[in-house]
Amino acid sequence: MNWKNINRSFRLNNSIFSSENELINYLENQNTDICDFLKIWFNNQSYLEVKTSGSTGLPKPITIQKEHVIQSALATGNYFDLPEETTALLCLPIHYIAGKLMLVRALVLGWHLDIVKVNSNPLSDITKQYDFSAMTPMQVENSIDKLNIIKKLIVGGGVVSNSLQTKLKYCKTKVYATYGMTETITHIAVKKLNYINTLPNFFEVLPNIEIYKDNKDCLVIKAPKISNNIIFTNDVVQLISNTQFEWLGRFDNIINSGGIKLNPEAIEQKLSKIITTRFFITGIYDEYLGEKLVLLIEGEEKIIALENTNLSKYEMPKAIYFLPKFIETTSGKIQRKETLKLLETSSNSF
Predict the structure, then answer these.
(1) pLDDT tops 50 at residue 213
(2) Of 190, 217, 250, at which residue does a domain stop?
């Protein structure tokens, strides 16, 4: 399939386009960011230059093949049963891979796509019903009262908290958490978030994806239709089967405290039941332990009842620090290392 082809069923904001030039001309005065991306998408180059999210370090440029982008779009359409004339809402920034893919899926699969201004509450002025959309956890949190206007929703760009998952439990919308990255051209696996009778559940890979673990217990992905290379991740996982896995956390976040290896993300899952603001667990230097486990919370100082959790004695934070505002990427993800540097210079310095 050629990337210059527009599916005959494609619609954008209820408008029909007979060629890529007509679509680009329409967007010149409507949305310059999307217009600029489409000029690159429709050019003669067989690849796109994109940047990683920067959540675990500085964003870095990588090259992905347009043919692979199309295959990713087809895989999503097949997995979620989203045929031609699917109504979809684009409310993510086009600067990142998730926003780009929503647009490409619509072009390739022939969806009827509407574009709204990107903000933290994208459904605030929406009354129309949609078959499909993609959001960040923050957008879902702020849209919870109107979420039923979307039939199927994928959520990415951050971990879905226990409190948000509880709110989604009885929602009519079929909501899925996604696992993926820029290198995998968005998601290669999804997990149901609000199917009452199937929780707990695990990430399930899309078709034509092979997974296994390396010697660090990190996920390895072999997906020839979307990448020419085998992808080695820093995500520690438990393999449930050849097609399912449980995400346990980042290998580069693991804390070695007195010889005990602690997984911050697992501890954060337990703490999310009692902490409603943003927070994270990390390790700082300790002369006796090597690293000691600490809890950083965004916002004003308050009492945290840690006894109301099921933390083990090793998982119990040795200290709690409060910061007015975490440092984050442009896409809203917390930058842990940079935020920790803030703490070193604050009045709460350790």
Answers:
(1) yes
(2) 250
Give the pLDDT confidence of 317-330 residue by residue, as tens digits.
Answer: 999 999 999 998 77
- Say if CB 202 and CB 244 are below 8 A apart: yes
Of 293-297, 300-304, 326-330, least confident by mean pLDDT is: 326-330
Q: Give the model's pLDDT for residue 350.
A: 45
pTM across the whole model:
0.84
**Which domain, by its residues, includes 282?**
254-345
Whether residue 149 is found in the same domain as residue 65 = yes
Tokens of 93: 């920034």
Helix 32-41 and helix 97-109: axis angle, to 10°? 70
Question: What span, in angstroms and rounded, lies between the C-alpha atoms of 270 and 335?
Answer: 21
Under the phi-then-psi rule, with left for phi > 0, alpha for psi from -120 to 50, and beta for the rest, what region is 285? Answer: beta
**Whose structure tokens read 């089967």?**
241
- State how far the alpha carbon of 247 is from the alpha carbons of 65, 132, 217, 263, 293, in Å: 27, 25, 11, 11, 21
d(CA 150, CA 166): 18
